[in-house]
Amino acid sequence: MALRNLENCVQMLVVDDDPLILRTILGxxxxxxxxxxxxxxxxxxxxxxxxxSEFGIILCDHLLPDGAGVDFIREIxxxxxxxxxxxxxxxxxxxxxxxxxxxxxIYRFLVKPFTNEELVTIVLQSLDRFHLQxxxxxxxxxxxxxxxxxxVMNQKLENRxxxxxxxSQNLAIETGNWRRACQNLVDxxxxxxxxxxxxxxxxxxxxxxxxxxxxxxxxxxEEMLDRIELAASLHDISLLGVTPVLQASQRELQTIxxxxxxxxxxxxxxxxxxxxxxxxxxEVMQLILEHHEYYDGSGYPRNLAGEQIxxxxxxxxxxxxxxEQKKRDFALQNMEMNAGxxxxxxxxxxxxxxxxxxxxxxxxDRPVLLSELxxxxxxxxxxxxxxxMLLVKQGQILxxxxxxxxxxxxxxxxxxxxxxxxxxx
Length: 425
Description:
By secondary structure, the protein is an alpha/beta fold. It has helices at residues 19-28, 42-51, 69-77, 94-102, 116-196, 198-217, 222-234, 244-247, 259-275, 282-290, 311-324, 328-337, 345-356, 400-412; strands at residues 10-15, 34-39, 57-61, 63-64, 67-68, 84-89, 108-111, 363-368, 383-384, 390-392, 419-424.
């Protein structure tokens, strides 16, 4: 038996009871990349299968001393399903071999007597088929491994997505809690302003309404409107405790005689900005810092000019200056006269357009006496007792019953705060 030790050879089992045919096959295949192992009957073939590793090609005679070759091939098909099976047969066995081919049990059959070329050709074809099957099996195994890797990666990705979703949900909850906490602080600041300095609080409210309306009319989106509303509501918070006369001098610094008073007024934008640093929106602090700057750079505290001031800052400047004017008709005329000098021209044009719109109503608040309250009025400020207990909430539409309640309380414990109701410009 001739053995070849080629690195890439395919092991081949040849079963035939004719020694001459075996020697012939060994000689013809000696130059091919196959390692031929022979057996002269089915029993010996079974032994070779048990003793050796996998066979890639099995060439078996049909008529053997101890059985039919086609039955043996059918028997080992389950053991080596990937082996290329060839049946040698006489011409009279053609019908049997054709049935074996059709059932998928053999790949080729070799009719005796065969030529050398026929044998070599069939073996070479069998080698190609075996390598093709091996490559297909390798690719399928690789595909299975890649599919498993993909499954594992997908599972990891799903787990990561679930984790990120959970983190995102937790973050949303934390963000919501933080926003509510910030809003509570803002509400607390506004309530303190309302209780300690109602006129200052009302000024901030009016500036906020006008600034938001002006920004909306100029095309800003809700996020920007929220920022300017916050900034306008808190822009003067550091003026709590400052006398009304000194507050009225914010735009007429030359009238302030005491240096400390002047420093306090000129520094109040920075102090107000510092007081609201708890807000997670730096732009709000920036707008508060800008609300006393002027277009030509003559404002304070940093003498910013033109594009150094944000457009929302210019809007807040105009809204604040407009509300500080005592006479509304003169206020708009004054804004127009100073467009391009103190105020951004585009913002002034926006203000003129907004106030000229018949569908726009800017609500203002006016102080009233308790005796002037009438059913249908809308409270612009909450009303508290001297001890701080809420009597009537801001925004409440007054009824005769509510007004009677206020009078009754005032008769026993005088209401000392100012009372404001809403009115339209």
